[in-house]
Amino acid sequence: MAAAATMAAAARELMLRAGTSDMEEEEGPLAGGPGLQEPLQLGELDITSDEFILDEVDVHIQANLEDELVKEALKTGVDLRHYSKQVELELQQIEQKSIRDYIQESENIASLHNQITACDAVLERMEQMLGAFQSDLSSISSEIRTLQEQSGAMNIRLRNRQAVRGKLGELVDGLVVPSALVTAILEAPVTEPRFLEQLQELDAKAAAVREQEARGTAACADVRGVLDRLRVKAVTKIREFILQKIYSFRKPMTNYQIPQTALLKYRFFYQFLLGNERATAKEIRDEYVETLSKIYLSYYRSYLGRLMKVQYEEVAEKDDLMGVEDTAKKGFFSKPSLRSRNTIFTLGTRGSVISPTELEAPILVPHTAQRGEQRYPFEALFRSQHYALLDNSCREYLFICEFFVVSGPAAHDLFHAVMGRTLSMTLKHLDSYLADCYDAIAVFLCIHIVLRFRNIAAKRDVPALDRYWEQVLALLWPRFELILEMNVQSVRSTDPQRLGGLDTRPHYITRRYAEFSSALVSINQTIPNERTMQLLGQLQVEVENFVLRVAAEFSSRKEQLVFLINNYDMMLGVLMERAADDSKEVESFQQLLNARTQEFIEELLSPPFGGLVAFVKEAEALIERGQAERLRGEEARVTQLIRGFGSSWKSSVESLSQDVMRSFTNFRNGTSIIQGALTQLIQLYHRFHRVLSQPQLRALPARAELINIHHLMVELKKHKPNF
């Protein structure tokens, strides 16, 4: 439309120009004289104007000279005035032609003008319509904002009403007592699930009413009476039910764990009593404590009495000590002693009682053992008794915590109210038994049983027995130390001269010590205790002193060494069977055995080869001091030693071997001593060879009679015993 408007404006201008030109042509010279002509409007070309600036004329001239047509005209030398007229004429012709073209298209231009006008009208109406729309939209926007404000206010009122409705609903639901609740509490047996469900509902409503009463809610008065009557009814039924269960414990031959487990299904009953009727809850708890306390005391007193009837009849007495002689006689009216005192110092299979499988094995049944005529050591009875105590105590403690809703010190107090009398009775019985107990291994095993049971109780998270374990250990440890000190004293006070005939074989007291010490060391390795090691160290010192005292009774040093080696070897062998190789006892006796063995070998070689030994030592000392020339005077002695060794060494070695095998009870130890003696003999003869290689003795004729060292080694190997 803008293009059409431009075309219309151009058409109107052409028509006006055409009309003006026609008028000028028609008027011609008739239009008046020169005085009537309008002044010529030259615009920027008017040089008579005050605004004309000569500098600008130069600029225009210079610009026109740059024109291509002007340049062409200047080059051809055309007259510019003539050329200007020619151009003006051509322009007039073109103008006239254009005017005629516009006149011919005048109808179309008029039609176009009409169309443009119509379009302008349509656009004007559209403008008015859009303006109306804009005003309408403005009013709608304000209405939307108003609606949004109203909607926000309605939402706030809705939330407030919903909040009020929720609180009122909770209040009403908490106060209203449904008929199902009343029916279940009044008519349903307590064992039915619906009674438990409605009891929980009643407890919740009672708590809600108490809370609302504290806030001053008046509506609580309407339901308080109904809830109180229902609460009284529920408390009565629950009290009768729980007391019946507790009374059922008292029936003879009743496994009280079954009704006790059944009570756990109804533990909410006690919680309800605790929150609504504390007096009844206390009555039930006191009745439970009284009943179970008597039951446990009766059961354990009976079990303990029947259990002690299956103990070994032969037990250690105060005279059954390590240093007591086996042949010691007692009075006429005294009981016969053990068949062999060694049994009370030997562990044997008794150590299995603290093994993991045996420790938690089923408890002993006394009447079954009596029918089978089975007997057990005290530690086995102690294990059975305390495992039953541990198992029942753990179950009882967990039941108390869960059913009576207690924990911490309150749970400990309630547990000791139930089990206190039983634990005290057990402690008294143990104290009474230990007063006449002289079996150190049994007491030590009981100590380790307690230590392991204490760990089991800790794993089961039952701390209620910690005090009891400490009390038991407070009884066992002093008794164990006393028995050990009695054995130490018995060894210390033993007089070797009262032990009868002397013998180089291992002494029975040292064997007792070896068995006893290895037993305690092997047990102590599982849970080490420094106090035990100190007591064993004292006992070891006394035994070593005892062995030296007995050895001193022999007249010859050789017999003394044989006795010492046999005893050290026996004690070392027994200890190594049970104790670790790096234990203090093993290291100590190994050092003693090595020292005495070396001394015995020297004593063994002295009679047949004493002269050779003395000469080698003297010669080596002279050589070391630089006095080897003095060896020249020993030629006769050397010759005698060479010939004497060559003629008697085989018989001497044979006699030596037989003497060793007769002297030592341990063939392996005897073999080791023989091998050590032969090795030392070879080393001695090798040293003798080196002495004879000195210049002072090198020309000795008897050197030709020396036995070759390798030949000697081969011959001596034939005398090495094999087992």
From TrEMBL:
Q: Which stretches make up the Vps52 C-terminal domain?
A: 290-601
Identify the species of origin.
Gorilla gorilla gorilla (Western lowland gorilla)
Q: Where in the cell is it found?
A: Golgi apparatus, trans-Golgi network
| Residue stretches making up the Vps52 coiled-coil domain | 101-273
> Which GO terms fall under molecular function for this chain's record?
syntaxin binding
PANTHER family found in the cross-reference section: SUPPRESSOR OF ACTIN MUTATIONS 2/VACUOLAR PROTEIN SORTING 52, VACUOLAR PROTEIN SORTING-ASSOCIATED PROTEIN 52 HOMOLOG
Chief place where the protein resides: Golgi
- Similarity section: Belongs to the VPS52 family.
Protein name (database record): Vacuolar protein sorting-associated protein 52 homolog
The Gene Ontology CC terms held by the record are: cytosol; EARP complex; GARP complex; membrane; perinuclear region of cytoplasm; postsynapse; presynapse
Q: Where are the transmembrane segments?
A: none
Q: Which InterPro entries match?
A: Vps52, Vps52_C, Vps52_CC
Q: Write out the entry's keywords from A to Z.
A: Golgi apparatus, Protein transport, Transport
Kindly indicate where the leader peptide sits in this chain: none
* Gene Ontology biological process terms, A to Z: ectodermal cell differentiation; embryonic ectodermal digestive tract development; endocytic recycling; Golgi to vacuole transport; lysosomal transport; protein targeting; protein transport; retrograde transport, endosome to Golgi
